């Protein structure tokens, strides 16, 4: 087999890869994803749409596309999402159009979505896209509680509910391809980078 044919059998960069990163709220997914993208060529973040209010420091169109509930409902009716879920009373969805636009630019994509949304994508897939599923976890629920309280944006009751949801989410681990435990952000980013490299080197069936 020639070197050209060998190269063609390797998936490579910009060939329809999407990395679905899911896990408990407060585990540090956004921080790790932002650092990973800053270090990794041809890798971009596809921001989800949500009806929740922005947290301090979040930017519309960067962290999320913040939309009103009626607009989100219209997008659902028009079939604009590849998946959408309700999480603790707020709605989240992944845009079909945004995914197609980024793929057309020859870019690999990172998605930060709810565990239920990830399971939906595992069942349905995305046409023309290879999905790699990463569960991003805190070292423990106690550490997760500490991180949620450090954000200072929610009541103790809301934090308790997030921890209950997190415990259920951890039980879905077997449905993911990879596990990253965010003990230190440096290690977590390095492990995410290793996953990206491995998937880009995967042989095309």
Write the layout of secondary structure elements.
Blueprint: H1 3-8, E1 17-22, H2 29-39, E2 43-45, E3 49-50, E4 65-66, H3 69-77, E5 81-87, E6 90-95, H4 96-104, E7 108-112, H5 115-124, E8 130-137, H6 141-151, H7 156-170, E9 178-181, H8 185-200
Parallel strand pairs: 1-7, 1-8, 2-7, 3-4, 8-9
Antiparallel strand pairs: 3-6, 5-6
Helix pairs in contact: 2-8, 6-7
Task: Kindly describe this structure.
By secondary structure, the chain is α/β, with parallel strands linked by helices. It has a domain at 3-46 and 106-200: P-loop containing nucleotide triphosphate hydrolases (Rossmann fold, 3-Layer(aba) Sandwich). It has helices at residues 3-8, 29-39, 69-77, 96-104, 115-124, 141-151, 156-170, 185-200; strands at 17-22, 43-45, 49-50, 65-66, 81-87, 90-95, 108-112, 130-137, 178-181. The strands form 2 sheets. Strands 2-7-1-8-9 form a 5-stranded parallel sheet, with helices on both faces. A hairpin with a 2-residue loop joins strand 5 (81-87) and strand 6. Helix 6 (141-151) packs antiparallel against helix 7. The longest helix has 16 residues, at 185-200. The radius of gyration is 17 Å and the shape is globular. The relative contact order is 0.22.
Q: What is the CATH topology classification name of the domain at 3-46 and 106-200?
A: Rossmann fold
Number of helices in the DSSP assignment: 8
- Major sheet description: 5 strands, parallel
SSE topology string:
HEHEEEHEEHEHEHHEH
What is the average per-residue confidence, as pLDDT, rounded to a whole number?
A: 89
What structural class do you assign from the helix and strand content? alpha/beta
Distance between the termini: 16 Å
CATH hierarchy class name of the domain at 3-46 and 106-200 = Alpha Beta
Q: Point out poorly predicted stretches.
A: 2-9
CATH level 4 superfamily of the domain at 3-46 and 106-200: P-loop containing nucleotide triphosphate hydrolases
Q: Indicate the overall shape.
A: globular
Helicity, in percent? 40-55%
Number of strands: 9
Rounded to an integer in angstroms, the radius of gyration calculated over CA atoms is 17 Å
